[in-house]
Amino acid sequence: ATFTEVPKDVTVREGDDIEMPCAFRASGSTSYSLEIQWWYLKEPARELAHELAISVPGSRNKVTNKDATKISTVRVQGNDISHRLRLSGVRRQDEGVYECRVADYSDDETQEHKAQALLRVLSRFAPPDVQAAEAVSHIQSGAAPRRHGPAA
């Protein structure tokens, strides 16, 4: 069982529309019950991994990131599932980690697979490259020595 398409980190400007793909294929010939969920995590993934690591074995599924929000769920019978997350008119507060979770209910135990991508949102009015702009103004201001007082 494996992801056939995973979301990638993306940087957009405020107000843009984005799509994050997520597709999964189960291996084998049996018909599966697959569920795909999109989650929004305010905090980066390392926080989540840390929380999972210190949780008691057996209760792993109950441990969730306190800042995680479920966005959507799609469930299918079959071996293939895909669910694109669409965000329109992205705002600064949409910035964060988006996680695609696929649960595979086919066997006796449920298997969960995860893929994550980071969304960065730039201000609509930010210059394309702040450092370049600063460098140019620095050169201009320091180029010619200024004369003080009236010219002789």
UniProtKB/TrEMBL annotation:
Cellular location(s): Membrane
Region Disordered, annotated ranges: 133-152
Entry's Gene Ontology cellular component terms: membrane
Topology of this chain in the membrane: Single-pass type I membrane protein
Principal subcellular localization: membrane
SUPFAM superfamilies from the UniProt entry: Immunoglobulin (SSF48726)
InterPro entries per record: Ig-like_dom (IPR007110), Ig-like_dom_sf (IPR036179), Ig-like_fold (IPR013783), Ig_sub (IPR003599), Ig_V-set (IPR013106), IgSF_V-set/TM_domain (IPR051102)
Superkingdom per UniProt: Eukaryota
Alphabetical list of SMART domains matching this protein: IG
UniProt keyword terms in alphabetical order: Disulfide bond, Immunoglobulin domain, Membrane, Signal, Transmembrane, Transmembrane helix
Domain Ig-like: 1-116
Protein name as it appears in the record: V-set and transmembrane domain-containing protein 2B
Organism: Rostratula benghalensis (greater painted-snipe)
Gene: Vstm2b
